[in-house]
């Protein structure tokens, strides 16, 4: 008997959303697993053991999944599912981005501050620009100067500054490479879950 799509092994670059019933790139989706206490766990890095249950990165999709009870059905067992699941997912993604930017800083792949970051940007050493959500819109636009480089805004200037050991940071440039791509992807997942409205916590 052929496997149903929900029971198919996790292989290949695409995963099927339990709500939308469409397949999307796995790195842009949200993976959940059943924990040891039958608790639904958001697997932020998609590395936990167990059969994954995948959703599109959207707050609406998470809410629909909760209403329809898709997780216990997909897991074929009763699960403890937090009613504030979307909020938990958002918090986990924010922390993951914070950790990835910190890793980029420690590895020398990130620089903060208008002048130093702008120097990287103008010399073509920018794979991603990360800006404070509470920074001046005009200054943020002036910094990028219309260049073709991905720009994301997740943290407040104070939270962004913490990563670099300073009071605040409005402009951060991440060097091209795997970390820049990962941060961009995580910011995209976060924007989907948060509906594009970020507190910059």
What report would you give on this structure?
- Helix 3 runs antiparallel to helix 7.
- The protein has helices at residues 59-68, 70-75, 85-106, 114-122, 137-144, 157-163, 178-194, and strands at residues 14-16, 23-25, 29-34, 40-42, 53-56, 110-112, 128-131, 151-153, 171-174.
- Residues 1-8 have low confidence and may be disordered.
- The strands form three sheets. A four-stranded mixed sheet has the order 6-9-7-8, sandwiched between helices. Strands 4-3-5 form a three-stranded antiparallel sheet. Strands 1-2 form a two-stranded antiparallel sheet.
- Helix content is 39%, strand content 16%.
Quickly describe the structure.
The chain is built from seven helices and nine strands.
Helix content: 25-40%
Main structural class: alpha+beta
- In DSSP terms (H or I, runs of 4 or more residues), the helix count works out at 7
Q: Which H/E pattern describes the elements? A: EEEEEHHHEHEHEHEH
List the uncertain runs. Answer: 1-8
Helix-strand layout with pairing:
Elements: E1 14-16, E2 23-25, E3 29-34, E4 40-42, E5 53-56, H1 59-68, H2 70-75, H3 85-106, E6 110-112, H4 114-122, E7 128-131, H5 137-144, E8 151-153, H6 157-163, E9 171-174, H7 178-194
Parallel strand pairs: 7-8
Antiparallel strand pairs: 1-2, 3-4, 3-5, 6-9, 7-9
Helix pairs in contact: 3-7
């Amino acid at each position: 008997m052929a496997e149903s799509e929900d029971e198919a092994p996790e292989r290949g670059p695409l995963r099927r959303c339990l709500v939308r019933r469409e397949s999307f790139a796995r790195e842009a989706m949200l993976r959940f697993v059943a924990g040891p206490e039958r608790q639904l766990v958001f697997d932020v890095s998609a590395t936990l053991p167990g059969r994954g249950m995948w959703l599109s990165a959207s707050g609406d999709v998470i809410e629909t999944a909760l209403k329809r009870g898709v997780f216990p059905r997909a897991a074929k067992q009763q699960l403890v599912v937090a009613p504030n699941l979307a909020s938990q997912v958002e918090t986990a993604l924010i922390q993951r981005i914070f950790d990835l930017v910190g890793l980029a800083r420690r590895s020398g792949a990130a620089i903060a501050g208008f002048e130093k970051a702008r120097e990287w940007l103008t010399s073509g050493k920018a794979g991603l620009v990360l800006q404070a959500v509470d920074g001046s819109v005009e200054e943020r636009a002036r910094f990028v100067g219309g260049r073709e480089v991905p720009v994301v805004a997740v943290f407040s200037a104070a939270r962004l500054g913490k990563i670099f050991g300073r009071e605040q940071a409005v402009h951060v440039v991440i060097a091209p490479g795997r970390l820049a791509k990962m941060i961009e992807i995580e910011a995209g997942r976060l924007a989907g879950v948060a509906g594009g409205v970020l507190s910059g916590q």
